[in-house]
Amino acid sequence: MMILNNVNKKYNPRTDIEVHALKDIDLKISDGEFVAIMGVSGSGKSTLLHILGCMDRATDGEYILNDYNVKNYGKNALAQIRNEEIGFVLQSFGLMNDKTVYENISYPLIFNPAVKHKQMKSLITKAAEDVGIAELLHKKASELSGGQKQRTAIARAIVNRPKIILADEPTAALDKKTAFEITDLFRALNNKGRTVVIVTHDRAVAEQCDRLIELADGKMISDTPIR
Amino acid sequence: MKLLSLISSVFSGRKKITVLTAISVYLITLLFNYFFAASYDYISLRQYLLRGDYENKLAAVLISSNLPLTDEAINALLAPVGFDNSWEYALSAKAGLLSPDAPIHNIEEYDEYEYERMISFDPFTGESTGADYSADHTLVTYTREPSELFETSYTGQLPDINTDTGGMGDSIPVAASFNSPLNIGDTAQYNYRGKQISVTVTAKYTDDYLSIFAESNGRAGLEPHGSWLLTDREIMYKYGVEPRPEEQEPYTVPEGREDMGEYYNQMIYVTAENMPYVEFADSLSKLKGDEYYTVTEIGGAIPYVGALDNDNTLIINSLPLFVLIFLIGSVGAAANGFLNLDSRKKAMAVFDICGMRTNIAVLLIFGCEAMVTLTATAAAVITAALLQLILPVTLISPLGGIISSGYIVLLSLIMAAVQTISIEHNDSLDVIRSSETL
Asked: Least CB-CB distance to A94: which of B5, B350, B357?
């Protein structure tokens, strides 16, 4: 469960160039939800994603992740949370282009001290099968299509079996058909019990989710169920 | 295994830059080790020589004549340049000591002095002359014992006229050099200038400084090789081993004999405690002999660093070039990190979202730096060592290898620190976003 209580985020606080990116955000995302976050550029979507993904800290307020207040965690602890609890999927895929699909998927496992080297192969293969790219493991990322790249990124995001997937404009760089395929993939992951939060401009993608949260000027202006 | 996999991923940057950096570090390390090995002896000898308490205002001067070299004669020579009564006798190699069992050929053809000069050494070249055999030791006399002038140490009781109780016909107390086969308490018999003498070792030097000193002052009339037995000059007179200069006779070449050149030779140290060095050097340059005495300034200082510098001008003149190349090489070593910074930033951003801890990040960056630079350094050190086995040239020393490796490690650490600080302040999501859109 992800709970934001009266969260504010300010950049360059108490200076002439202070930016109040998030204002009084109260938000609760339960386990297993499929949530879309929409808003125009500058509405605070990315900032919200940073905080949900423990990439940044709120200036005020608190973020409770699975009953733990994130404020109490140091850098290394937050890194561990990102490794074990959260998977990121990005618009630009975030792959190492001259590495193979296998190597790209392996990174979260490398940073998980609980995973031994000899366990990695089976976990990577399973994740690749879950997203439908098992036959591409030995190909370099640069040789993949957009859809295949995003599937690789999703496989990387789920290889450590995190409970939460955070996706930042995951379909923006894809054609419509591929975008729907990827969205379906997220739905499939959600059906298996994962919490999926997608930041998107695309209303068509948002309407595939169960809940839509809209931001404007750093504030949450609506929070409506879609299904 | 995991860390190696990560380092391999970070190296997905520009491989050409990495290879060029490795080559640069390789060549620079090779050059550094060669220069260090070539200059080490010069630098260490220079340091060693500068440990004397006379610094640069003590000049070694050789006076030669067929007339006895009395104090009065020497003062008369030095008076015109103002150094009369400002000198002392230097360490003086007198002659070789021969075992009584040594085969001696045609001794009846030579008088005692000529014979000894023939079999011992030429004071100017240090070479044995006409020898079928070499001396067991060189007998050296001192006015001021060497450890008072230089940082050399000894055990036992040094021969000292002020405390000596022996006399005519007794066994002469001597101090043995480090490399002498004689030890404290040993007594030995020798031929010296046509007479039999006995010596007893009462002290022994515990380091090899005297042979280093002799090496650097080969022109100063000292035997540059072999072992020494040293005693107080006054003890030589007291024991009747040889006459004082005032009791010596002018040397004349016996009829039918070869002229041995100027017969009496004495090295002195001219000192100037309170005179500026430039003035001292200028005064010495005016030093001249006369019709009876030849004066040769051998060295400007004891320790004579100037002569050592003259013999190593190539190394000294190469130093600025070496420093320049070393600096350029350092920039080359650092280039790998800077020129690959963008790709490394992206790699680290990807790792960050995958949950990489800060300490792993630091290790990873350092590992990337060190992998290139240390591999190149190790390759250079191995190359130098192998070449040294094949070629007759010193290319590497343990200290040079350690220093160059240590420097490269330090450079890698600094580069890693700079990159860590630079990468640490980046927003990983923004970095990934912007790198894909370039």
From this structure: B350
